[in-house]
Amino acid sequence: MKTVKKTVALILALIMVLSLAAVGFADNGPIIDPSKTGSLNIYKYDLTSAEAAGAWDAGSHVSSGVYDSSVNDTLGGAVNYAIQGVKFTYLKVADITTYTSSDGSSQTSTTVYAMPVGPTTTSLLTALGLSYENTHHQTESIYYFTSDTLVSALEKALAGNATVTKNALETYIGSNGGTEMAETDEYGHSSASGLPLGLYLIVETAVPENVTSTTDPFLVSLPMTSIDGSSWNYDVTVYPKNNTGSPTLEKTVREAQTSTGKNSGAADSITDGYAHTATASDGDVVQYQIISTLPTITSAASQLTTYTFVDNLSQGLAYTQNDVVVEFFRDKGCTDKITTWAQSEGKFSADYTAEDGGAAMTITMTGTGLAEINTSADVYGAAGQQSGYSACTMRITYSAAVHSDASVSYGATGNPNNVTLTWRRTNAEYYDTLKDDCHVYVYGLDLTKQFSDGAGSFANVKMLLHNDTDSYFVQATQQDGIYFVTGHTADETQATVFVPNAEGKVIVKGLEDDAYSITEAATDNGYMLLQEAVKVVISTAEGTVCDVCKKPMLTASATVNGNAAEMAASNESANAFVTLTVVNTKGFDLPQTGGRGTWLYTTIGIVVMAGAAAVIFFIMRRRSTR
Fold first, then answer.
1. Which of 14, 45, 136, 222 qualifies as a cystine partner to 38, CB 3.0-4.6 A?
2. Are 399 and 229 in contact (CB under 8 A)?
């Protein structure tokens, strides 16, 4: 209401326009020269920004209807607060005349505005909350109103319901032959000249994207009495006010998996794990949300004609597609829901395109959707000072999957995903954009397997990788000698067995920032298995600031068995892979079952057997000689 009151105060100051006191007339008739024409000059400045910067105090300025160099020098000087792209429409609604009444002893002359009786005048009076009963005088064909009546009615209508009044007068002027002035230029100026004398209704009918609240409709009398009441001004200059501002935009992301403890999977919370950065494993699904506070909508002239999001996804991720949901809330925290839109309702479209280095999704509000955003009565009712979903919060959610291949960016570069919002109001030639982004980070292991004597076979080595943080075994597929994570399982028998390549390398790409255990299930003959699991911890912390959203990005570090470990780069992306070496030593020497050991046992056996045979021979011989 404060904004409305200030605006109304400004309009009333402008409506000195209507103060055509009796000084305008003498005994010999009106001083107004009927052979002249009038002109109207409008200067539009961003008083919202000027007041915020301390360059302007609207309360200290009184509009006189005369060009004011101090205003133009202040607001259009070194810092130019001019608003380009505003369009005004004017319509003459009454003639200026004098009504003289007599009480028999004296005569009273009053300046009045004559309006022809008919539906056109009736619709104007209805918008102003007036009727023929409010006339100063009337005939069968003419209604006569005083300036006091008209000023009071316009003030009351705007204070009671600015949106309804603005819409009614915008509709009225458009339906009854109003003339559109040229849009305000880079100096915020527009003008009209050669205007027949009379009373004019001026309505702001088109605005650029940064205008959040249109100027209240106002009345101008051509000519108008000078502020000191001594002369007539045929060339009127006004400085109507606009409020300006922009919508907001924020894009955040979270891992969809709830077992990580980073979120509980709540679909109705904008804070449950959502952040500017997230880490994920290859094959994981990540969930995105775009939060935008809509600009103010106060009348048809400030309605939105475009509200489009272009979302760009890094090549390492793929849109789920057809899962976009749009929601509207009364509050910025998105707790008081107004409505939910599904794509099948036709209120928005989501179109997917492939691009070099990634993919794009364009979310466009359709005509049906824009009509609801602009005119819905669910928030402010039919009698609000704003309309539609003005200043409400829009939330867009969708998901994407992390690829399990080399297209993913591993390490500090991350996988950035940006969104650009483009919006227009009724002057479609003027638009603005906002941009925000978020980042998904993925890491890996670069393990080197060695044998203490350099003679073992890597092909006989088998390893398992367990995520201790989330309690699962890692599953992966091998491509060109590199393992890319594809998923996870709680069943050890379903876990991927990692085997070093010919160079003894086990490279695993696609791990998030968690704690892991590397266990050895098998090794080459004659070598000892690792007695304990190798413990690897990948940690992240805030690092450098993002150029787009000015928020911190992530940088990673790692430990192996509690000791700091080096992290190697991936292409030009630092801190991508934890590097470690695992060595198998020779087993203990036992008596061999071949070679010299076998000969010894064989010889002893033969000697024993020969001795036994000799004993048996002598016993049998002795028996035979008896």
1. 222
2. no
How is residue 330 annotated by DSSP?
S
| Structure token pair of residue 32 | 């107004």
Low-confidence spans in the chain with pLDDT less than 50: 1-30, 589-604, 626
Retrieve residue 557's tokens: 């570090």
pTM, two decimal places: 0.83
The DSSP code for 80 is: B
- Name, in order, each residue with C-beta under 8 angstroms of 525's C-beta and a sequence gap of 6 or more: 460
Rounded to an integer, what distance in angstroms lies between the CA atom of residue 164 and that of residue 172?
Answer: 12
Give the separation between CA 121 and CA 115, rounded to whole angstroms: 7
Of 436, 503, 112, 402, residue with least CA distance to 292: 436
2-244 CATH, one of 3.30.1330.60, 1.25.40.340, 2.60.40.10, 3.30.70.920: 2.60.40.10
**Alpha-carbon distance 402 to 567, whole Å?**
22
- Domain positions in the chain are 2-244, 250-440, 443-584, 594-626
Residues 518 and 533: beta-carbon distance below 8 Å: yes
CATH architecture of 443-584: Sandwich (2.60)
Helices first, then strands: H and E counts in the chain = 8, 39
Question: CATH top-level class for 250-440?
Answer: mainly beta
Residue pair 136/145 in contact by the 8 Å Cβ criterion = yes
Q: Within 13 A of 575's CA, how many CA atoms are on the CB side?
A: 18
Closest CA to 511 of 331, 282, 299, 353: 282
pLDDT at 56: 83
Torsions phi, psi for 450 (to 5 deg): -135, 155
> Cα torsion for 561, 567, 570, 571, to the nearest 10°?
-160
* Count of other CB atoms within 10 angstroms of residue 480: 9
Q: What pairing do the DSSP bridges indicate for beta strands 218-222 and 179-180? A: unpaired
Q: What are phi and psi of 382, to 5 degrees?
A: -80, -10
| pLDDT score recorded for residue 597 | 44
- Structure confidence at residue 65 (pLDDT): 82
Q: Who contacts 570 (Cβ-Cβ below 8 Å, separation ≥6)?
A: 409, 410, 411, 444, 576, 577
Instruction: Give the pLDDT confidence score for residue 104 in this predicted structure.
Output: 64
Asked whether the domain spanning 250-440 has the same topology as the one spanning 2-244, the reply is: yes
Say what angle helices 2-14 and 147-160 make with each other, to 10 degrees. Answer: 160
Q: Assess contact for 187 and 76: CB atoms under 8 A.
A: yes
Which of 324, 540, 557, 317 has the alpha carbon at shortest distance from 416? 317
CB atoms within 10 A of CB 82: 18
- Kindly give the pairing relationship between strand 552-560 and strand 534-545: antiparallel
Neighbours of 100 (CB within 10 A): 9
Per-residue model confidence (pLDDT) at position 616: 54
pLDDT number for residue 161: 85
Spatial distance between the Cα atoms of 108 and 270, rounded to a whole number of angstroms:
69
Query: What pLDDT is stored for residue 381 in this prediction?
Result: 87
pLDDT in tens, 28-64: 334 789 899 999 999 999 988 888 888 887 666 667 7
